Amino acid sequence: YHCLKNRQYMEIMINREMIRRREMSYDECMEKSMSPVQKDVFIIVDEWWKKYGCSPTLRQIADVRGKTGIGNTKDIVDRLVKLGVVKRVAGRRSIRPVYINFRDIE
């Protein structure tokens, strides 16, 4: 995209990731095409937030699923992030459904 400024053309790069998108609601998240396992993990994360008001760890998600390793659980959470139904900050305990806003948490 080019615009004219001070009689010179300047190129403006638009990073699509920087454009703020409207967050999905719970119902919109549940309508996304998820495998049964992905849906289970999404529900675990959602219910954990409702019960404890914080993010579950990968280990806690795996424990609720009855699994001993966290590798597969991490892969599932990564796919949920790509689907846009959960958000996460790498290296932190921050897995949350997209419709939960930190400003709304008391």
Quick rundown:
With 106 residues, this protein is an alpha+beta fold.
Q: How would you characterize this protein structure?
A:
The chain is an alpha+beta fold. It is 42% helix and 11% strand. The protein has a two-stranded antiparallel ribbon. A two-stranded antiparallel sheet has the order 3-4. Strand 3 and strand 4 (96-97) form a beta hairpin. The longest helix is centred in the middle third of the chain and has 17 residues, at 36-52. The N and C termini lie far apart (43 Å).
Radius of gyration: 18 Å
Percent helix range: 40-55%
Pattern of helices and strands = EEHHHHEE
Largest sheet: 2 strands, antiparallel
Widest sheet, order of strands? 1-2
Q: What is the number of helical segments per DSSP (H or I, 4+ residues)?
A: 4
Describe the global form: globular
Terminal CA distance reads 43 Å
Number of strands: 4
Q: What oligomeric arrangement do these chains adopt?
A: single chain
Structural class: alpha+beta
Strand content: 5-15%
Unreliable stretches covering 5 or more consecutive residues = 1-20
Mean pLDDT: 79
